[in-house]
Specification:
Elements: E1 4-7, E2 15-22, E3 28-34, E4 39-43, E5 49-53, E6 60-66, E7 74-79, E8 83-88, E9 93-99, E10 107-108, H1 122-125, E11 127-136, E12 139-146, E13 151-155, E14 161-165, E15 172-179, E16 185-191, E17 195-200, E18 206-211, E19 216-223, E20 229-235, E21 239-244, E22 250-255, E23 270-278, E24 284-291, E25 296-301, E26 306-311, H2 313-316, E27 328-333, E28 342-349, E29 355-361
Antiparallel strand pairs: 1-29, 2-3, 3-4, 4-5, 6-7, 7-8, 8-9, 9-10, 11-12, 12-13, 13-14, 15-16, 16-17, 17-18, 19-20, 20-21, 21-22, 23-24, 24-25, 25-26, 27-28, 28-29
InterPro entries: WD40/YVTN_repeat-like_dom_sf, WD40_PAC1, WD40_repeat_CS, WD40_repeat_dom_sf, WD40_rpt
WD repeats: 8-52, 53-97, 137-155, 165-209
Organism: Plantactinospora endophytica
Length: 369
């Protein structure tokens, strides 16, 4: 069986972030954030755009869903002006605005932003990543990564900034959270300073510093079937490192080698990572990585460190090999419910590529494929 795909048209600019959620009624939704300053919501049954969220004034770099303990569904979206908006999935209205990278606190939507004479330069306020963490039963935390070298932790509900984590010496570009077997909350942050920092959310202390050989631009946790954790970090020259969170030993360094179709001066970037558990594929844990300027998505066996599949949206969608407009930025697996022997993968890219959804057959992901 070959991969099948569909293009989702609507965005007028590059798609920088994608995230799936399955609602309590079983409906599967996809959120996509774009350089065109909008977020679009897509229904996976009809593939229609069911909402356009247009309150941002700058490109949207990160989108993440969460189901709050009290019920319902929220979407967090972060933009290039340091603004994080929270959206109610029942009404698609913005219910809260947070400003990271300055000293504002959360406030209800509709209250205008105060303009001050002394504000950080726009490039320092950019939100490059947002993430949710289940803090404890009945509570969630929102985490934001900013170009001002900080990581901010927000209490869901009060929307007050609980902590500002400092320690990175350059732009912070990625955050991701996970829980250990014994209930500890681990927060990872990656930055242009070539490091990944592991934080204790309760104390605000940095527990571990993991070294990379290039700027870190993407992070993703995986929970194995036995409950132990793996952490993957993507760097801006195409390598992906995978650490065992029990020992912090680097288990694999995955590389995406350029082939003869790419200019020799292109710097390949692992701009987005996402894990999925798929026992049916014979791997246990699969890691998808977006190759920003290599224009492809690689699917690795995260346990063995071997390449399972390369998805080439440029070729399949018959787009020209134009590196200024056709590039892959974002990837996200749908939930692990296998449908008709396939796994579903959303791919976001440059202004000519934009957004597509792929059904990848499990037999194409098998070790002997």
């Amino acid at each position: 069986m070959e991969e099948s795909w569909r293009a989702l048209d609507g965005h007028r600019g590059a798609v920088w972030s994608v995230d799936w959620v399955r609602r309590s009624d079983g409906r599967l939704l996809l959120a996509s954030g774009s350089y065109d300053e909008t977020v679009r919501i897509w229904d996976a049954d009809s593939w229609e755009c069911v909402a356009v969220l247009a309150d941002h004034d700058r490109p949207v770099a990160s989108v993440r869903w969460v189901e709050p303990p009290g019920g319902g569904l929220l979407l967090a979206t972060g933009d290039d002006d340091g603004i994080v908006r929270l959206w109610d999935a029942d009404t698609w209205q913005c219910s809260r605005v947070l400003v990271a990278g300055d000293d504002y606190q959360g406030r209800p939507s509709g209250i205008p932003l105060l303009r001050r004479f002394r504000r950080p330069p726009a490039r320092l306020k950019r939100i490059r990543s947002v993430a949710w963490i289940a803090d404890r039963p009945g509570a969630s935390l929102l985490v934001t990564a900013s170009y001002d070298q900080t990581v901010r932790v927000w209490d869901a509900g009060s929307w007050r900034c609980r902590r500002v984590l400092t320690g990175h010496s350059l732009y912070v570009t990625a955050v991701a959270g996970a829980r250990t077997n014994d209930g500890q909350v681990l927060l990872a942050s990656g930055a242009y300073d070539h490091t990944v920092r592991i934080w204790d959310v309760d104390s605000g202390e940095c527990r571990q510093v993991l070294r990379c050989d290039a700027s870190v631009i993407s992070l993703a946790w995986a929970t194995r079937p036995d409950g132990t954790l793996l952490l993957a970090a993507g760097a801006d020259h195409g390598t992906v490192r995978i650490w065992d969170a029990q020992t912090w030993e680097c288990r694999h360094v995955l590389r995406d080698e350029l082939d003869g179709t790419h200019p020799t001066d292109v710097v390949v970037q692992a701009s987005s990572l996402d894990w999925i558990a798929s026992p049916g594929a014979g791997a246990g844990m699969l890691l998808a990585g977006a190759n920003l300027l290599g224009n492809r998505v690689h699917v690795w066996d995260g346990e063995r460190g071997t390449l399972r599949r390369v998805v080439d949206p440029i070729r399949a969608l018959e787009r020209p090999a134009n590196f200024s407009s056709n590039y892959v930025i974002a990837v996200a697996w749908a939930d692990s419910t296998e449908r008709d022997g396939v796994l579903r993968l959303a791919i976001g890219g440059g202004p000519d590529l934009r957004l597509s959804v792929w059904d990848v057959p499990l037999d194409r992901l098998a070790a002997d494929a």
